[in-house]
Design a protein that fits this description.
InterPro entries: G6P_DH (IPR001282), G6P_DH_AS (IPR019796), G6P_DH_C (IPR022675), G6P_DH_NAD-bd (IPR022674), NAD(P)-bd_dom_sf (IPR036291). Pathway: Carbohydrate degradation; pentose phosphate pathway; D-ribulose 5-phosphate from D-glucose 6-phosphate (oxidative stage): step 1/3. Its EC number is 1.1.1.49. It is an enzyme of class 1 (oxidoreductase). The protein is of the alpha/beta class and about 500 residues long. It folds into 2 domains: about 1-140, Rossmann fold; about 170-405 and about 430-470, Dihydrodipicolinate Reductase, domain 2. It contains 15 helices and 17 strands. The protein has helices at about 10-25, 45-55, 65-70, 85-100, 115-125, 145-155, 175-185, 215-220, 225-240, 250-265, 270-275, 400-405, 410-420, 430-450, 465-470; strands at about 1-5, 35, 70-75, 105-110, 135-140, 165, 200-205, 275-280, 280-285, 290, 310-315, 325-330, 340-345, 365-370, 375-380, 390-400, 455-460. Strands 8-11-12-7-13-14-15-16 form an 8-stranded mixed β-sheet, sandwiched between helices. Strand 1, helix 1 (about 10-25) and strand 2 form a beta-alpha-beta unit. Helix 1 (about 10-25) packs across helix 2 (about 45-55) and helix 1 packs across helix 13. It is globular, with a radius of gyration of 24 Å. Bound molecules: nicotinamide-adenine-dinucleotide. Nicotinamide-adenine-dinucleotide binds near residues 8 and 9.
Length: about 500
């Protein structure tokens, strides 16, 4: 049951992902999708919109008729109590028709203010009284701060237990994010080095070229800190820094991730602006085209204090990571679209190859998450010729080049995980609460002090100067993400 079935997420991600699962035989014939949204549509009109979304996403020529016949529509205002009863009737009729054994997944692809109300109605009106399993999938944002997240959690926990709640963080469905664990725990050459004796710093970048587009109203209440750092960035940090789990089960992995979030040094007062930098884009040029400043975007306050860029230095106070800075940065209207992790290893004790006043490049392991997927390892090797000089070489693994198939879309993997009842790649309440507690301290300071220098970076750049200074203070610099691209062999 998809709440918000006429929305952008349903059309761009959910319908095409279900279709690919169906094509691959991962979805049997025994399924039904109920689309719920306010608009009055007939079943036929709804099925047509599903077909259009599949065609737009991938398959223009396939025969979709059998697939879309499983889709049904229920026009329903989620705040109106009376329409849940007819939804319940529809669900139980479909259950008998397709022989579904009372198994239900409720996917809330709607604005978060409705999550609590829907969950309460599902229980009060009996939609969760089923013979099989019941699962709730919810989109971000999960609350606005730790207090609102607790409130929301309380509401949904009345209707669903923690192990029935699947909080989506679509980064956790990405192929290369899932690969972090494998690279770390399946390679004898990395795991022994994965600590403060050998790693000098870690850099996570998630940059976008797009601006806020038409999402100004939402973004004004969120900003980059809540939209990206609280969830995606901290989830990647947890995967990079966690201890090896004793088994690859949901509980064991989650418990190791939670320990990382608990070990993150909390920031308060002056420490916030020492460790974190905020930015907001001004106008600039992207692909030779003039683009407006954030404050001139639709539905944005012309004197907005909202950050569209965040850079920060995280410290994890445990035996493995004490003293290793983990730098993160994320922003809109940046020079390039890229999500990458750079692990910089410490310099060797002595440089023997200094003849031409050459400094040796440090070894880098780069995990490319998007748009290119892959891994690169930077080593030093002999420069060909008479002299013994070192030169950097790059060992590269590009995911697409090897497999020759498109990696499954994150939503496709996560939907399938949810159907199988595997919650490993979803966020547990403890992780949500810890990451909000960390981020809340930063927003408190930023909301109380207006950023006088906004806008402080030009569109089409890699963010404000202060983000570079954050690393320079420690003797580091951001590795330029475009130079490191997986296809720059
Ligand atoms: P949207 O505005 O495009 O769609 C909202 C849907 O909710 C529509 O189907 C609308 O009919 C329905 N709706 C609104 N009010 C209703 C009511 N009172 N009763 C019944 N239906 C109602 O939103 P979206 O972009 O699809 O996003 C949905 C959720 O997914 C949000 O929580 C968003 O933050 C999250 N999300 C979206 C994307 C994306 O790519 N669009 C990515 C990540 C997370």
């Amino acid at each position: 049951m998809i709440f918000g079935a006429t929305g952008d997420l349903a059309k761009r991600k959910l319908f095409p992902s279900l279709y690919r699962l169906y094509q691959k035989g991962k979805l049997s014939e025994r399924f039904a999708v109920v689309g719920v949204a306010r608009r009055a549509l007939s079943n036929e009109e709804f099925q047509l919109s599903v077909k259009e979304s599949i065609e737009a996403a991938s398959d223009k020529n396939g025969n979709h008729d059998e697939f879309i016949s499983h889709f049904h529509y229920h026009s329903h205002d989620v705040t109106d109590s009376s329409s849940y009863l007819s939804l319940k009737q529809m669900a139980s009729d479909l259950d008998s028709h397709y022989g579904l054994g009372g198994n239900r997944i409720f996917y809330l692809a709607m604005a978060p203010e409705f999550f609590g109300t829907i969950a309460e109605h599902l229980k009060a009106d009996g939609l969760t009284d089923v013979a099989g399993f019941k699962r709730l999938v919810i989109e971000k944002p999960f609350g606005h701060d730790v207090e609102s997240a607790k409130q929301l959690n309380k509401q949904i926990r009345n209707a669903f237990s923690e192990d029935e709640i699947y909080r989506i963080d679509h980064y956790l469905g990405k192929e290369m994010v899932q690969n972090i664990e494998v690279i770390r725990f399946a390679n004898a050459i990395f795991e022994p080095l994965w600590n403060n004796r050998y790693i000098s710093n870690i850099q996570l970048t998630s940059s976008e070229v797009l601006g806020v587009e038409e999402r100004g109203r939402y973004y004004e209440t969120s900003g980059a800190l809540r939209d990206m750092v609280q969830n995606h960035m901290l989830q990647m940090v947890a995967l990079l820094a966690m201890e090896p789990p004793i088994r690859l089960t949901t509980e064991e992995i989650r418990s190791e991730k939670v320990k990382v979030l608990r070990a993150m040094r909390p920031l308060e007062g002056d420490a916030v602006n020492e460790h974190f930098v905020r930015g907001q884009y001004g106008k600039g040029k992207i692909d030779e085209e003039e683009v407006p400043a954030y404050r001139d975007e639709p539905m944005v306050d012309p004197s907005s204090n909202t950050e569209t860029f965040v850079a920060g230095k995280l410290l994890i106070d445990n035996f493995r990571w004490a003293g290793v800075p983990i730098y993160i940065r994320t922003g809109k209207r940046m020079e390039t679209k890229s999500t990458k992790i750079v692990i910089q290893f410490k310099d060797i004790p002595m440089n023997l190859y200094y003849q031409s006043e050459q400094t040796l490049n440090p070894n880098l392991l780069v995990i490319h998450i998007q748009p290119g997927e892959g891994i690169s390892l930077y080593l030093n090797a002999k420069k060909s010729g008479q002299n013994v000089e070192a030169t950097p070489v790059k060992l590269n693994f590009a995911n697409k080049g090897i497999d020759g198939i498109n990696t499954p879309e994150a939503y496709e993997k996560l939907l399938f995980d949810c159907m199988r009842g595997d919650a490993t790649n979803f966020t547990h309440w403890d992780e949500v609460a810890l990451s909000w507690s960390f981020v809340d301290k930063i927003s408190e300071v930023w909301e109380s002090e207006k950023a006088e220098n906004f806008p402080n970076y030009e569109s089409g750049t890699m963010g404000p100067r202060e983000a570079d200074q954050l690393l320079e203070k420690d003797g580091f610099f951001w590795w330029p993400v475009t130079d490191l691209n997986v296809d720059n062999c």
